[in-house]
Amino acid sequence: MEALLTVDGVSSGYGDVPVLDGVSIEIKRGEVVSVIGANGAGKTTLLLTIGGHLQARSGRVVFDGADITRGQPHRTVAQGVVMVPEGGRLFPFSTVRENLELGAYHAGARRSLRRNLDDVMTLFPVLAQRSGQLAGRLSGGERQMCAIARAMMGEPRLLMLDEPSLGLAPIMVERLFEITQSLVAAKGLTVLLVEQNVADALQMSSRAYVMERGRIVKSGAGRDLLADEDVQRAYMGI
Predict the structure, then answer these.
(1) Where are the beta strands (DSSP E) in the chain?
(2) Which residues of the chain are under the pLDDT cut of 50?
(3) pLDDT given for residue 187 in this prediction
(4) Per-residue pLDDT tens over the stretch 146-187
(5) Cβ atoms within 10 Å, residue 16
(6) Overall fold of domain 1-80+158-238
(7) Predicted local confidence at residue 113, as pLDDT
């Protein structure tokens, strides 16, 4: 199957500080692919570079056959690459509905705003119940649902999730991963997941990459890495 996203030898960082060092990953259509690693390994930097928030110093990012290495974030979103940042970053003094509508940023999504709004309200019924409530008054799990729903308003083909389970109760983590899998099945979505909850991430991922100090040091099927003794010892406390 042809790759939807190819990151080929990408290096990037912040100012004069290098973070990614020749990173290469590939994601096929309809896959859930995880990137795991310790804090500071470069996982978030990778997502930001793919999305155009950081410019690659070398290498290429190709999405659906188009070179987006030098792409700007608003154009990358319009092409179908949408990121849910760590913590969701909602607008707390806007309502849930207003936050969702802001996800329909580009012209194509605005044309389908009403239909997509109905879709996400059906998928996340708690958001329909809270649509007129200020987003800052949502619980942690509800905020993360709202952030994912807002991303879906942008009609993504590749959804990048940065630490979606951070700070959530185990039952809510399980629910979020179930929702992610249902989006893949129902929408044909492709997901790139950065997640500290390594066991759950690997269980739901068809493939995964292990990142250390800005480099990919290991990759394989999710189930294989789940059984890998080095991964278990380093990231799962086994």
Answers:
(1) 3-14, 17-28, 32-36, 58-63, 66-67, 81-84, 158-162, 190-194, 207-212, 215-221
(2) none
(3) 80
(4) 999 999 988 999 999 999 888 888 888 888 888 888 888 878
(5) 5
(6) Rossmann fold (3.40.50)
(7) 86
What is the pLDDT, as a whole number, of residue 36? 94
Q: pLDDT at position 217, please?
A: 95
What stretch(es) of the chain map to CATH 3.40.50.300?
Answer: 1-80+158-238
Name the β-bridge partners of 50.
Answer: none
- Residue 205 corresponds to which tokens in the numbers above? 């991922």
Taking a C-beta distance cutoff of 8 angstroms, is the pair 204, 32 a contact? Answer: yes
For residue 147, what are the contacts with CB-CB under 8 A and spacing of at least 6? Answer: 84, 85, 88, 89, 90
180-189 contacts, C-beta under 8 A, 24 or more apart: 180/32, 180/148, 180/204, 181/32, 182/123, 183/123, 183/152, 183/159, 184/30, 184/32, 187/152, 188/29, 188/30, 189/30, 189/156, 189/157, 189/158, 189/159
Return d(Cα 175, Cα 165) in angstroms, integer: 10
Tell me the backbone φ, ψ of residue 62, rounded to 5 degrees: -120, 125
The pLDDT, as a whole number, for residue 227 is: 93
